[in-house]
Amino acid sequence: MLPLLLSIFSSMAAIASGNFYRDFDITWGDGRGKILNNGDLLTLSLDKASGSGFQSKNEYMFGKIDTQLKLVPGNSAGTVTAYYLSSKGSTWDEIDFEFLGNLSGDPYILHTNVFSQGKGNREQQFYLWFDPTTDFHTYSILWNPQRIIFSVDGTPIREFKNLESNGVPFPKNQPMRIYSSLWNADDWATRGGLVKTDWTQAPFTASYRNFNADACIWSNGASSCNSNSPSTGNGWLSQELDTTSQERLQWCKKIT
User: Fold this and answer.
1) Which of 93, 170, 189, 218 is disulfide-compatible with 175, CB 3.0–4.6 A?
2) Is 16 exposed, middle or buried (0-12, 13-18, 19+ CB in 10 A)?
């Protein structure tokens, strides 16, 4: 089945260097989400009344998705910045980055999860090895028929392999949109809900730039990769972790 999938999708993927006006819609927040700098920058904000969020105009069926984020600085306890791929319906697929805010000086927790056919419970958490609030950093999801690789600034932090042969569902049949939101989750986000959001610090703001999708766009029941055009550098369709990447993955597990 995997060789067939690769042959179907290896012909041509859409490579999009992002413009937020073109690629995304702000879907909620009553003005708290903003697209700035001619589409080069997007910000989400949270105050006591509401958070905010956006979604991609396109749906994708496999790809390498990169976005640079600068997270809520200072006392971000109780807040969650979520960035993820998801399909719709009761048996949805989903690939998650969630950034759990914390008290000033304490590290953010990066929470990852994979849902397939509506089933999750595949959480892994990491402490980042830098302050993600002082500058932009690149968060990447590589999703192909064999594996999902989560990376931060090019360093793989997690690999979720396709183990359908062992009875483990893998997201490969449902196209997904990109979503992001900034919201209040102080009932669980920081120290299990013990630390509440300090609304005197509001508004809380997260920033996004340099979105890039090297991916198969799904539209009207067909993939942009179902083309007879020659392949244009879709190495991600069969990409796996080489020896160096495996070593970096193990390094990341040790420090987090």
Assistant:
1) 218
2) middle
CA atoms within 13 A on the CB side of 4: 2
SS3 167: coil
Q: Determine the Cα–Cα distance for residues 255 and 99; give it in Å rounded to an integer.
A: 18
Q: Is the domain defined by 20-222+236-253 classed in CATH 2.60.120.200?
A: yes
Preceding peptide of 203 cis, ω within 30° = yes
Two structure tokens written together for 227: 């083309």
Question: Phi, psi at residue 22, to the nearest 5°?
Answer: -75, -40
The amino acid occupying position 255 is: I
Q: Tens of pLDDT along 155-205?
A: 999 999 999 999 999 999 999 999 999 999 999 989 889 999 999 999 999
Amino acid letter, 156: P
| Alpha-carbon span 218 to 212, nearest angstrom | 16
What pLDDT sits at residue 228?
46
The 3-state DSSP class for residue 4 equals helix
**Catalytic residue numbers, as ranges:** 94, 98
pLDDT cut 90: percent of the chain above it: 81
pLDDT tens readout for residues 41-97: 999 999 999 999 999 999 999 999 999 999 999 999 999 999 999 999 999 999 999
CA–CA gap between residue 43 and residue 34 (Å, rounded): 5
Collect all residues with Cβ–Cβ distance below 8 Å to 128 and sequence separation of at least 6: 107, 108, 110, 152, 256
- How many other CB atoms are found less than 10 A from the CB of residue 36? 12
Distance CA(251)–CA(154), nearest Å, equals 13
CA gap 68, 54 in Å, rounded:
15
Task: Please measure the distance between the N-terminal and C-terminal CA atoms of the chain and give it in whole angstroms.
Answer: 36
